[in-house]
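Support reply, case 0932

Customer input (verbatim):
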Amino acid sequence: MNKGKIILKAKLELISPLQIGSGSADISDRDIIVNADGRPYIPASSFIGKLNAVVDDYSFSKYLGIGQDHQSRLQLDDLEIDQDDFKISIRDGIRIDNKTNLVEDGAKFDYQVLEPGVCFNLNMYFDVNCEDDFENLKGWIPIIVSMLKYSFYVGARQSAGSGELVANEITVMKYDFANKRDAIEYLIDQDKSDCKELSTGLGAVDNSIFTIIGDFTIPSSLIVRSYPDTPFGSDAVHLKSNNKPVLPGSSVRGALRARGERILNTIWEDNSFTKQFIAAMFGYASAEKENSYTIPSHLRVNEVFIDEVASELQNRIQIDRFTGGTIKGALFDSMPLFPKSDQAQVKGLRIDIKDAFDSQKGLLLLIFKDLYYEDLAIGGEKNVGRGCLKGITANIIDNGNKYENIFDENANSEQWDKYIKALHENADKAEIEERFNSFLPEKS
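Our regenerated output:
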């Protein structure tokens, strides 16, 4: 095809809460972006950035007009929702001091999210001006289709599982302007049948991602604090999404990071490299006003719904240690989650780390083992025994291969012993230092 258009249309379902900031703070510290009608949307610029990163081809960047003296040859509308029953919620965020395990001073904030369950309309128009354009698009579009079919992330807090989208409808239409009928159908905006040559996709396997997926029960209770919608509710309730309790990726990430730092400080005699190792794995944002820098996270934890639980009110008091009596005014309550059965309450908790070194895989295995065997608590009120999870299954995807129930007695541990050994010996120190230093500001 020498001249024509390729149009890709899709319905993208939002799987986890979406946060794309508007830059304003009228309702929360970080409001999401909405159009003139008050409907949230995904700006085309955000989606273009995701496409460019996924395709990862300089020729595609040129086609998009990035760094060129011509405009993009891909026309893309903002991704809008066409339904009225969307819900915008406000969530709280905190930053924990790993030394004290308490919230840092001034490190509490809130932000808006669009709750999952809505669908965005995606409309992409690719120009074909010569045969080379069409040949290139035959390579690029299947990559884009695969991204849409097997989920991707946009917006902020992606490392905590926010902003996951997946296409439940995809149509790719080819209009060859050498064919008069195709040209007329394009001009009158008439849809064509799906072009299988372009819409098949390449598959979902990404061998650069190391993944651990687990199912868990809650042996005692769990609470990730949120606050009721009315002043008459409990002092603290468990976080919900669309009125269903969830285990947010941010809470799990925070617990994993703190335990990872503790493990490194235990097994390494020289702890000077711990900060860089953790930052290269979990990400880091410096607080300095001058020469600040940000290291992106290579690790992501998804947000999962919690099933088979009941929320119950518990009253608590604070005791004066000197008198042994109740401190005046120190009566409060909370509504943690309790299991209703011995079935898995947390299903499909997924931890991904991209481009991981062997030592990073080893650390993730040790952290996940602590989580699996009830030695790592998540959420609030840990001092009264809340937050531990009990593992049921633990599966790994490594280099495209799947390993099931890795903690069973009969499981082959040689593969994982290699990663643990690499961690003990700090075998990837030079490569991790190089990755860390690549994000530091240049010294003047």
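We compared this against your earlier run and they match. Two observations from our side: The chain has two domains: 4-199, 209-437. The two ends are 52 Å apart (CA to CA). Please reopen the case if you see a mismatch on your end.
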